[in-house]
Write a structure and sequence with these properties.
Elements: H1 7-24, H2 46-54, E1 58-59, H3 68-71, E2 78-81, E3 83-84, E4 87-93, E5 98-100, E6 105-111, E7 114-125, E8 136-145, E9 150-159, H4 167-177, H5 179-212, H6 221-243, H7 246-256, H8 263-289, H9 292-300, H10 305-335, H11 347-358, H12 361-389
Antiparallel strand pairs: 1-2, 2-7, 3-4, 4-8, 5-7, 6-7, 8-9
Helix pairs in contact: 1-5, 4-12, 5-6, 5-8, 5-10, 5-11, 6-8, 7-8, 8-10, 9-10, 10-12, 11-12
Length: 401
């Protein structure tokens, strides 16, 4: 198909493919770092055991203790103690990004008895990995020795990229460093918007059929009341869901009713029922655009009301309304951002998460704005190609949540 040759469509398919790869193999993206396991050689010497268990590393910033969590997110230098009581400690590293000083220096640190001075070796970080390279794992090997024995212990960690200070550098860093989160957000957004539009379309057909029912005078009272009840329900449904914001509906069904007990299912439900109200009005307009003579002609040929709607009226109405229905899909891509209020990590919520990691709001939201623009432009272009291929009217009808 020709529309598949469009570069924007190809990029959209590439994003979806990346998401599939991310699900199958999380390590494919830089956010998911490679970890290494520490090794400790066995020893029976209680002095060495005490030293290996009690030794800590210190950050070059205020000489803070480096916990394992900090070692796994390291981007600055640190200090290595070379003595623990009567135990001497020698250090080595498997990473070329470190320079371990050969001359010891003295730093003040806090102990249980108060501040003390200890001798350490300063480890300088020569280079950090780029955003494309991702986290770079390393191993620091400590050799503990006293007069009788010797033993080794490994300390593992990861050097992480640092965001550049300039705007464009921050933009590229944010995109490539957190590509997996953006892909995950895009897939969640597309899933909710596409599935919500399809389900909403099915519900909308039922609603428009209910609303188009006209009770006849010769019908029984119960039948007429039933028809009026269905018609009234359809009007009430459209009024409620078109008259309230989607963000309020999401909060009501999730926090108020605790619907489904799963945020994704609740979010899909909200998008579907909200979209159904808008598509129902679009289809009602499409039915009104079909000449009334076709209904009369079909009935005169012996078709029932249901058969006439199914085979004559609805196919034409749906075809006329397809541009506006496609427009609803594009709107849903943007409007799913309100589902962040119920904890769904769609594209916008993933961006809030990323922005909070570095406190650089501008770069993160600039990236997500470009992604939303790309998605809406690509989907709009794809829908226009489909409309032309199926010989649908190209005119877009106004519809907005």
């Amino acid at each position: 198909m020709k529309f598949l040759r469009n570069p924007f469509v190809m990029i959209l398919f590439l994003v979806i493919a990346l998401g599939v790869v991310n699900v199958i193999s999380p390590g494919a993206f830089t956010l998911f770092s490679t970890t290494v396991e520490a090794e400790v050689s066995e020893t029976d010497d209680p002095e060495l055991i005490e030293a290996m268990n009690g030794l800590v590393l210190y950050s070059e910033f205020n000489y803070q203790t480096l916990t394992q969590a900090k070692l796994d997110q390291l981007s600055y230098g640190f200090y290595l103690p070379i003595q623990y009581g009567d135990v001497s400690i020698a250090w080595s590293s498997d990473s070329s990004r470190f320079d371990i000083a050969s001359v010891p220096e003295t730093i003040p640190v806090m102990s249980q008895t108060g501040p003390i001075d200890i001798e350490v070796l300063h480890v300088q970080v020569l280079s950090l990995p780029s955003a494309l390279q991702g986290n770079d794992p390393f191993i620091m090997t400590a050799t503990f020795s006293n007069e009788l024995h010797e033993s080794q212990k490994q300390y593992t960690g990861q050097l992480v990229p640092v965001m550049p200070d300039d705007f464009w550098g921050g933009v590229f860093f944010t995109f490539f460093r957190y590509l997996s989160l953006f892909v995950e957000g895009v897939l969640t957004t597309l899933l909710l918007s596409l599935a919500g539009t399809v389900i909403g379309f099915v519900i909308a057909i039922l609603l428009v059929l209910m609303r188009s029912i006209r009770p006849a005078r010769h019908e029984a009272t119960i039948s007429r009341l039933l028809r009026k009840g269905l018609q009234g329900f359809a009007k009430f449904y459209v009024t409620i869901f078109r008259g309230t914001p989607m963000i309020v509906q999401a909060a009501f069904f999730w926090y108020g009713l605790g619907l489904f007990g799963d945020a994704m299912l609740c979010g899909l439900f909200v998008v579907s029922v909200n979209t159904a109200a808008y598509i129902a009005e679009i289809l009602r307009g499409g039915i009104s655009s079909v000449d009334t003579g076709q209904m009369e002609a079909a009935r005169s040929l012996g078709l029932s009301y249901v058969q006439t709607m199914r085979y004559v009226i609805l196919p034409q109405a749906i075809k006329n309304a397809m541009p506006a229905i496609g427009n609803e899909f594009v709107i849903n891509i943007k409007d799913t951002s309100v589902l962040s209020i119920i904890g769904i990590f769609e594209l916008f919520n993933q961006t809030r998460r990323i922005a909070g990691m570095h406190y650089r709001q501008l770069e993160a939201y600039f990236v997500v704005a470009l992604i939303y623009l790309f998605l809406t432009y690509t989907v709009t272009h794809l829908l226009q190609k489909i409309e032309k291929r199926l010989d649908m009217p190209v005119k877009e009808l106004t519809s907005s949540n």
